[in-house]
Design brief:
332 residues; alpha/beta; Rossmann fold; Dihydrodipicolinate Reductase, domain 2; 9-stranded mixed sheet; 6-stranded parallel sheet; 12 helices; 35% helix; 25% strand; Gfo/Idh/MocA-like_OxRdtase_N
């Protein structure tokens, strides 16, 4: 079975998915839509697809089996709910939105429609991350330390808090998600954000240039995440997981894992392309009708978003706030 796919969005992440999907034999991209017609035409030409006149026209169940929604988080409206309502399976890039109410409504619509759904938390698909997850089963993590440093997205909208949600919600969300995936749900969060330097580079920017976030997990473990989107000389990420009798470290966005205990001291670097594994898992799920290979669904992605939104509420209130427990139970 060939899975016919529509692509909404023609920016950098959409082009990345188009390139990846072109390597998957079961996938056939048949249509592309973007508000920038020129961008849509270039993206469509790269895979031999047609250009749709609107997102609504693209979401035609007789033309496509699945859709990749790769528009910025502020520009999605109810695309997910519309697609689900028409019986179209969907892949949605992270983060899922900018506030929980609309995301919660869309999650309900997707769940009730019974379509397959995947969210772009691509780092879960590293074999190194899977090894860490397997190793941690039955072990107690008591401390988490994480960080992500780098430079900002080139698009002007990304520097606007009301459009991107900031660096924590848009980029560091990958580290937030891996902590959830490996150690468990967040209970509460306390955060501080700074804007001491970004105005010099981008006078119109409203996002923070740095953040310091502390949290408690439902397990009782505690942890911190520090981040900066203005770090041109040090762009790296890491998650350190401490237990009473072990240590696990994920670096390079999860590409490399180190595991140390009394019996081992190993470091493994993945040769896997997680983007390929992620897109292949979704395409094969649509072809087979089973979502077992999908590692992050919509409700799961909603919980990761809830952490970033709670962190910003904490910064505004000056104290710790609970991370809302939204949606149905998420399978481990």
């Amino acid at each position: 079975m060939t899975v016919k796919i529509g692509m909404i969005g023609a920016g950098g992440i959409a082009r990345h998915h188009l390139n990846t999907l072109s390597k998957i034999p079961l996938a056939q991209v048949v249509g592309v839509f973007d508000v920038n017609r020129e961008s849509a035409e270039r993206a469509a030409a790269s895979v031999g697809a047609r250009v749709a006149d609107s997102a609504d026209a693209l979401l035609n169940r007789s033309d496509i089996d699945a859709v990749f929604i790769c528009t910025p988080q502020f520009a999605r409206d109810d695309l997910e709910a519309v697609a689900a309502g028409r019986g179209i399976h969907l892949f949605v890039e992270k983060p899922l939105g900018l506030e929980l109410d609309s995301v919660r409504r869309k999650e309900k619509a997707i769940r009730e429609a019974g379509v397959l759904h995947s969210v772009g938390y691509v780092l879960r698909y590293y074999d190194t991350v899977q090894q860490a997850k397997h190793y941690l089963q039955g072990r107690t993590v008591h401390l988490v330390q994480a960080y992500r440093f780098g430079t900002s997205h080139p698009a002007a909208w990304w520097r606007q808090q009301h459009q991107s949600g900031g660096h924590l919600a848009d980029a560091v969300t990958h580290q937030v998600d891996l902590i959830r995936y490996l150690v468990g749900e967040y209970r509460d969060v306390s955060a501080r954000f700074g804007r001491s330097a970004i105005g010099e580079l981008y006078p119109d920017a409203t996002i923070a240039d740095a953040g310091a976030v502390s949290f408690t997990l439902e397990s009782g473990a505690v942890g911190t995440i520090t981040e900066s989107c203005i770090s041109p000389f040090n762009g790296e990420s890491e998650i350190k997981l401490f237990g009473p009798d072990f240590y696990v470290q994920l670096s390079g966005n999860g590409k490399t894992v180190t595991i140390i205990d009394k019996e081992r001291h190993v470091t493994i670097t993945s040769k896997r392309d997680p983007s390929y594994e992620q897109d292949k898992a979704f395409v094969e799920a649509v072809a087979s009708g089973s979502g077992d290979s999908i590692l992050c669904g919509y409700a799961d992605g909603m919980r990761t978003l809830a952490f970033a939104l709670a962190a910003h509420r904490s910064a505004e209130s000056g104290g710790a706030v609970p991370v809302e427990d939204e949606g149905p139970p998420v399978m481990a």
